[in-house]
Each structure stands twice: as structure tokens, then as C-alpha cells.
Amino acid sequence: MILLDDVTLTYPDGDARLTAVDHATLEARPGVVTGLTGASGSGKSSLLAIAAALVRPDAGRVVIDGTDATCLSRADATALRRERIGIVFQQPQLLPALTAREQLCAMAELGGRHRRTRRPAIRARVDELLDAVGLAEHANRRPAQLSGGQRQRVAIARALVHEPRVLLVDEPTSALDRARGAAIMALIARLTHERRTATLLVTHDLVHSDSLDETFIVTDGRVTAGALVGGSGGRNEP
Q1: Three-state SS for 9?
Q2: What is the DSSP track for 175-224?
Q3: What is the pLDDT of residues 88-126, one digit of tens each?
Q4: Among the four 8, 64, 122, 211, which has the fewest Cβ within 10 Å?
């Protein structure tokens, strides 16, 4: 579960401060894809950074999987991200020299839950995830040998390799055409429902809104609840 409770975030702006997030409250529940929508510069990325415990807000409470992230030291916040938060960036950010399988194995070695796990068990987990995202036959290919949509699928699998409670996704379709974007959004929805992650997804493109279960609209740092746009609400299999 992700809970941002009356969160405010400001940045220095000359002699004053610029408000990026203004008394925002939202919740993303397990098994639900919660969308953050709004114009460029509205505060969506700042909210995602707060939810990732990358930025500490000026005021308010940030609860990630039962832990109040606003009370954590920098080291403890890093451990929280490593063990309980999966992040999918706007660009896949894959290592060019590693195959799809190796990308996931490297992340699994870093994850707190798998550091003492036998490597055969890690490989089995990696292969299960690559199969789940439809890339079992491409496990030994490097990023240059994959399409844009396939690279994004690797990034999604990599974010899930340490079995996070929370998945944060930043504009996953921005570099993809409409068909590939729809496939990525459907994949995120399916994995969220199946694995019961609490998924918070930033998007400005509502053409794929059918893959969202709930939405929040961000305007000048303020958050308002949108309509229930998906059919499942995380309650049924898609």
C-alpha cells in the first residue's frame, strides 16, 4: 500500500520557495493500478519521487507497505527501495552489455530478499518473470537486439524481481507507438492484479486509461480523485 497523507513539497526559487506538491493526499492499494494524470509540470514526477522515498516532503506523511518513510534515515530509505519498491523509469535504462536474463539476475543479487538465496533459485525466479512478460525466448538477447516494447518489458520484469510490495511506473508508453503502449499497459495491469502489488503509474496519455483501475488528477501540485476508469478495480483477473 502507498499512502501520501497531506503531503507538501517545496523547492528553493531565488529568495522564495516554489510549491511542487500542495497538501496532496492519495492512496494506492494492493492489486490496483492507480494512475496519476495531469499536464507537464503539474507535480506528477514530484509525487512519484516522494512515493519512492527519493525525496522527503516538507510536511505530511508517506507510508509505504506499513512503514512511515518520512521517519527513515537515508540508509533506511535506500533499503526500503531495494527491498519493497520496484521502479520502472520512462526509459528502460538497461545495461547494454547484459542480456535480458543478466539484467534481472544483477538486480536480484542486489535485492535484500535474495542476497542470501542460492543462485539457482535466483535464476528460476528470473526465468519465471521473463516468461510472465513474454520474453522467455529472448532471455539471452542484449538490449540492442530487442524492440522498444521488449526493452520496456525487461524493465518491468527487473522491477519485479525482488518481489516488491509497491510498483512505481513513470510514463511507460512515452517512447512507444500506440499498439506497443497498449500492450505494455495491459501487461502492467495483469501483473499488478496477479501479484497484488500496489502500483502507482504516472501518465499524461489517457488513450490507455482502460488499463487503470483508479485515477488521481494533479493540477499545480494539488491532487483530486478521478473516476474509476478500469473495469476490475484489482478485484478480478483481467
Answers
A1: strand
A2: TS-HHHHHHHHHHHHHHHHHHT-EEEEE-S-GGGGGG-SEEEEEETTEEE
A3: 988 899 999 999 999 999 988 875 554 555 677 888 989
A4: 8
